[in-house]
Amino acid sequence: MSNNQLGYYLAGLLEGDGHISLPAIGHTTLTRILNPRVIFTSHINNLGLYAYIQSRLGGIGRFQVVSPNAIRYIVGDIEGIKRIISLIHNKIRTPKNKTFNKLIQFLNIKYSLNIEESLLDHSDLKSNAWFTGFTEADGHFGVKIVEAKPKSEIRKRSISASVQVLFKIEQRSYDRPTSSSMEPIMREIANFLSCKLLIIKNNQKLLKLKTIDTLSAGVYSLDKITHLINYFYEFPLLGTKSKYFKDWVAIYKRIKSKKHLTESGRSQIKSISSNMNRGRLC
């Protein structure tokens, strides 16, 4: 992956699994210098992914185990943060760009730098690795298996056996740190996937003013999934989800070749799907 595409990938990953921590500018009672931090939080199985990212960033940053299943990759030194800024500058698509620009402003003031404000990216999603990074954080590769059930006294119609692959991304309707809507980027993603954006209502409140609905974009048809697979072949996943994707494609190919209609084919699909997502140990 080129540095340019790595920048797009990191931008998507940061917007899904990342957090920018900004200390206050000014005098402090502490003797040490307070710097901002860029923090990625992920499942422990993604340690290899973040070790790779660390190597691509020149060895910057440190790791922290926060629970038996979660790690953080933390970049807190000034040179490391400047390196990340240079890679993802003008590549962010969500309201997190507001926080990113506050980070730039912080560095400009504290270290007398002259980094330009980062513009919100509106490039074609299929042209770069941003969506790969965002999927690495928040995408879901799923398989739906329905067993055949005969007509009965409590079931008016029989149910046919079926197998379906699906891909889905969901986000809260508002970005908490900036209190900004996530709908524009989720509509971009829905257009990219050629699907409708669903708004799932709930009763939670944000800042006692706005309902925190869930925005969902997903695809199920084989034609649309074919286009998605081609995208990930061009801009590959790098973390644990690359393994989920490989299993998912294996099931997709069996459905395309009608093997899911045979007993042996369905057995193979069940075996593969049992090892995906939460079923995978590494």
How would you describe this structure to a colleague?
The chain is an alpha+beta fold and 282 residues long. The protein has 2 domains: 3-111, Endonuclease I-creI, CATH 3.10.28; 134-277, Homing endonucleases (Endonuclease I-creI). The protein is built from 9 helices and 12 strands. Strands 1-2-4-3 form a 4-stranded antiparallel β-sheet. Strands 5-6-12-9 form a 4-stranded antiparallel β-sheet. A hairpin with a 3-residue loop joins strand 10 (205-206) and strand 11. Helix 8 (241-256) packs antiparallel against helix 9. The mean pLDDT is 86.
Question: Nutshell version of this structure?
Answer:
With 282 residues, the protein is of the alpha+beta class.
Walk me through the topology:
Layout: H1 3-17, E1 18-21, E2 37-43, H2 47-56, E3 62-67, E4 70-75, H3 78-88, H4 96-111, H5 130-138, E5 139-146, E6 162-172, E7 174-175, E8 180-181, H6 183-193, E9 197-200, E10 205-206, E11 210-211, E12 214-219, H7 222-234, H8 241-256, H9 263-273
Antiparallel strand pairs: 1-2, 2-4, 3-4, 5-6, 6-12, 7-8, 9-12, 10-11
Helix pairs in contact: 1-3, 1-5, 8-9
Features:
2 domains; Endonuclease I-creI; alpha+beta; 282 residues; single chain; elongated
Q: Radius of gyration from the CA trace?
A: 22 Å
Strand content: 15-25%
Task: Identify the quaternary structure here.
Answer: single chain
| Total number of helices | 9
Instruction: Return the CATH class of the largest domain.
Output: Alpha Beta
Report the CATH superfamily of the largest domain: Homing endonucleases
Estimate the mean pLDDT confidence. 86
Secondary structure: number of strands: 12
Indicate the percent of residues in helices: 25-40%
How do the strands line up in the largest sheet?
Answer: 1-2-4-3
